[in-house]
């Protein structure tokens, strides 16, 4: 069976791999034998090995060099392009993060290959599913040139273990001058939140303009913490300064697809739906019974969020 290269996204501080990598390894099994590619600083692969073996990596290509960390995304694209030329894989699967999509685009250009981004599923025949036009159209596509490259949307595949050998092979890192064209000069490590990452969380609680102030977002955070959930926000909420822009869900924000999405004080505009409508179960809290979010919601509560949300938090915490 042909290899399928899977670009590994590592957790910061050597704490294993991100869930997106386990999803990509799971999806890649439909296309062939997953071969994980770890491209990072010296020692990067050490913390990843056990999970890669558990989730089906038949091989692990290890490309470790300070240069990979020092020059943004271009080195990762070059490592992958070298492996595509050497190993002739059946396909390449990359998590659909902002970095993953940039690596994928560069790889497609370097290898003259077709690229399908944000896919939610891929079949053994290589047919990918994409959700387009704010979720109103489902598109099935195939790559017709080069080595098919897919970026996999987070939370669209359930990671399932499939123990494999994870045989390691070291890959020499030799960067071109072009890959050194943009250098990292400084890194500020964000303070780590105890909440899960928005795009990876199983539960997301999002607040909208109805929350009415930055201070009042504490009730959204309270519900999220009682459920072990991530916090999201509508664009109206972030534009009003209630919550940071990095937490925006929607067409121009992040796309989430959790098991449970709770929309609080959010009307359900098409641009917001674009980022959350593939959530498995949607709950809406809104004081307006005509709010469009109720058309999409599996469960709706008509009421004032200032009463409903604290009561829900209290009931959940009491369990
Ligand atoms: P509103 O539409 O003002 O809704 C607030 C809701 O809160 C209302 O339904 C109201 O009934 C309810 N409410 C008020 N008070 C209470 C209360 N006390 N209790 C319960 N309910 C209450 N939006 C996004 O979210 N994400 C995007 O990525 C995004 N991208 C965009 C891109 C473009 C190009 C454009 C044009 C728009 C984009 N928007 C996006 C904006 C989008 O069109 C909406 O304006 C926005 O989603 C509205 O946010 P909201 O639902 O929080 O606010």
UniProtKB/TrEMBL annotation:
Stretches assigned to the Electron transfer flavoprotein alpha/beta-subunit N-terminal domain: 4-188
Cofactor descriptive note: Binds 1 FAD per dimer.
Classification via InterPro entries: DHS-like_NAD/FAD-binding_dom (IPR029035), ETF_a/b_N (IPR014730), ETF_a/FixB (IPR001308), ETF_asu_C (IPR014731), ETF_asu_C_CS (IPR018206), Rossmann-like_a/b/a_fold (IPR014729)
Gene Ontology molecular function, alphabetical: electron transfer activity; flavin adenine dinucleotide binding
Cofactor: FAD
One annotated GO biological process: fatty acid beta-oxidation using acyl-CoA dehydrogenase
Positions with a binding annotation for FAD: 209, 234-235, 248-252, 265-272, 286
SMART domains the UniProt entry points to: ETF
Keyword annotations of the record: Electron transport, FAD, Flavoprotein, Transport
Top-rank lineage group of the source organism: Bacteria
Functional note: The electron transfer flavoprotein serves as a specific electron acceptor for other dehydrogenases. It transfers the electrons to the main respiratory chain via ETF-ubiquinone oxidoreductase (ETF dehydrogenase).
Family, as annotated: Belongs to the ETF alpha-subunit/FixB family.
Subunit structure of this chain's protein: Heterodimer of an alpha and a beta subunit.
Protein name: Electron transfer flavoprotein alpha subunit apoprotein
Organism of origin: Geodermatophilus ruber
Taxonomic classification: Bacteria, Bacillati, Actinomycetota, Actinomycetes, Geodermatophilales
